Fold:
Amino acid sequence: MILLIGWKNVWRNRTRSLVVIIAVMLGIFGGVMATGIMQGWIEQRIHDCIYKEVAHVQIHNPEYMYNEEIQHTITDYEKLANILDTLPEVVAWSPRVKLFVMAKTSWTASGFVLKGVDPEKEMQVSELYQDLAEGDFLEGEHRRPSIVIGSKAAENLKLLNYEITSEKLDSIDKEVFSAGLVEKLKTLNKKRFRNEKDFRDELKKVLAKREMNEYGDKLVKYFSFYRMGTSIQVTMQNKSGEIMNLVFKVRGVYKTFNSVFDAMNAYVDRDILNRYTDLAGNEVHEVAVITADNETGVKVADKLSAYLPEQDIMSWRKSSPEMAMYTDFSAVMAYIYVAIILFALAFGIINTMMMSVLERIKELGMLMAIGMNRKRVFGMIMTESVFLTLTGAVAGMIFSGVMVELFRRTGINVEMWSEGMEALGYASVIYPSVSLGNYMGITILVIITGVVSAIWPARKALKLNPVEALRTE
Amino acid sequence: MKVIEIKNVVKIYNDSEVQVHAVNGIDLSFEEGEFAAIVGPSGSGKTTLLNMLGGLDNPTEGDILINGFSVSEMYNGIEKHRSRISPVLKTIFRITIIPAVIRGIVKLPDIVKRMKAERKLIDFRLNNIGFVFQSYNLLPVLTARENTELVMQMQGVSKEMREKRTKELLGAVGLGDRLDSRPSRLSGGQQQRVAVARALASKPRFILADEPTANLDSKTTENLLDIMEQLNKMEKITFIFSTHDARVVRKARRVITIEDGKVISDKKTA
Structure:
C-alpha cells in the first residue's frame, strides 16, 4: 500500500512532478553525455596513442633511453625475435631504427625523428597507414628512397601548397560556391602559394569580406595539396659517427589527430636506412609490440622483463604515463561530473518533496491519527521521492541511450577547435562511448540522490504532531 | 461496564505567555455501546477532550483510562525518552557545527526507545479507536476501497479478509457500487460514509467523531446518523460525537454539555 500511495502521490501534481522528472532526465542526459564524450575522447586518444605512437610494449637497449645514439641498438635481437615469435599473447611486432635527423627542402629546414621500418611488419603494429592524406605507406617497390612524413612536418617544410587550378575550379561544388565567386577565383588561376597566410592574403584581395568569412576556410582546404615526390635532404650520423646526407622523395603524407606527432615522426624503409648508416639487419633501436588488448600489453611487458632482464621493456602505461592516468581516472572523473549534476538536481527534488509534504500536512496528520506509525510515514515520503527520481532516471537513461547511440554513429564535430585539440592529440570528431557499468553507476547515484533528497522533507513530516496537523487548513 | 474513565483531566495550552485551560477538571465515564454526544459552543473544549480520548493528545493533569490502558502512562513512556543527552552535550551541539549525523548517532538509542513507546500508543489507536473527522480526510489518490483497506493493511490483515470486510463495510454504508471511485468523484455525504467505513475497518471498540455532520445537508446527516446508530446497535461499538449539531443531539442517547472546559450537564435521553 505504501508503494501504491507513493506512486499515486507522484502523479498528484502532474505538472510539478513532470518538471522534476524532466530535470532528472536532462540531468542524467547531461551526465551520460559528459561521461560518454570524455570516455570516447579518452578511448580515441588511448587507441591512437597505442596503435599509432607507442604500441602496447616498447623494447630498447637501456643505454638508448639515456643517450639516443645510433650505436645503442638492442642487444641479442635474435633472442628477442624468437621470444616474440613464440609468445601467444603477442599479436604483432615491428623492429625500428630511430634516428634524430635534420630535414631540408628547397625552401626551409626542420628536425624530426626518422624511423626505419619494415613496412609490412610496421603496418601490423601501427594504424598510421590508415591515416594517409596522400600517397602510400612505403608499399611495393620504389625506385628511389622514399619517405612518409606527417602533415605538420609537410607544412613546416613548406610542402603543403595552395594553388587554384582550372581543373579544381571546374570540379568545384557549384551549389556551395556561387558562379560569381568562381569568376573572382579565376583571377588567381595557376598562382601557387607556399603557405596558408600568403594564400589567404591573396584571397582577401579578390573576395568580399563576407565571402571570405563564409568561404575562406573551405577554399583554403579545397585548394591545398601536398607536393608529393618532392625531394627532402636528410642529414644524419652513420654508425661511425660521420655526418651524411641522404635524399628521399615524399611518398606519403599522414595526418593523425596529434599534430605534434605529425611534426616529429617520418618513416623510411629500414633496409635503405641500414644501407647508408652501416647498421646491420639485426641492429635496431626499438621493437614495438602489439598484444590482444591494453591490459595484456602490461602483462606481456612484465613477462618480457623476466625473460630479457638486459633490455629496457616498457608497457604503454610506462611509456605514456599520462594515458595510463587518463584510463585510471576517467571513470572517477565521469562520476564526479555526474555527482555535480545530481547535487544540483537534489535541490530540485528537495523543493518538490518539501512542497508535497507541506501541502499534505492535514492528510499526514490524519494518517498518523488513524494509526500510521512514523516508520511508515517516513517510508511513504521516501518511496515517493525514489519513484519520482527513478521515473526521471529511466526516461533519462532511455533518452541518453538513444542520443549516445546516435552520436556514436555520426560523431560530434568540434572542428572549430580542431587546431587546439589536435595539438593535444585529440580528435575533432568525438564518438561518445558509455559502458553498461556507467549506466548502472549513474542509476545507482540517481536513486541515492532521490533517497538523500527526501530525508529533509520526510523528517519534516515525522516531526508533525497529529493534533496540530489536523487543525491545519 | 465502564470502558472509558476520565479522571479529573486538565489540559493547559501555553499560547505565547498566556495559559489556556482548554479542559478544566473533567470527570466522566462511558459504558460499552454508548451513543453519546459532547456538545458545547466553539472553544468549550470538546475537540480537545475528544483528542485526549483518542490518545492524540496528553492530559496536563489527571488520567484517561481506555479499556484499562492509561493514556498518560503511554505518553509518559514516550516523554521519558525524549532526549536524555546531558545539558553539557546539548550546549556543545548548539554552539558548534557538529553534523546532524553525529547528533543523530548520539540520540539514536533514545530515538529507538521513543519510537518503541510511541508504537505502543499508535498500535493502541490503530486497534481500538476509529476516527471520523469533520472534513472527511480521505486520501484523494486512493479509491473508496483503498481508503477503507488502508487501516486494515496497517493492522496486517490478509488480502482476502481485507477485501471481504471492505465490501461489507462499504455495502453497509450504501456505497457497494462505488468501490472504485476516488473521493473527488463522491459527494460530501458519500465521502463521510467512506470515512465511517474506514473508521470501522479496524474493528475498533470506540468511534470518535469530531463534528462529522458539519459539512452535510439534513438528508445526508439523517442517513449517516442512521447508519452509525445501526452499527452501534449491531456491533456494540461505542460512538462518541463532538458536535453542536441539533440533529446529532436528537439521535444521541447521552448528551454531555461542556462550557469553558467543564461539564455543566450530563443527560441520558433514552
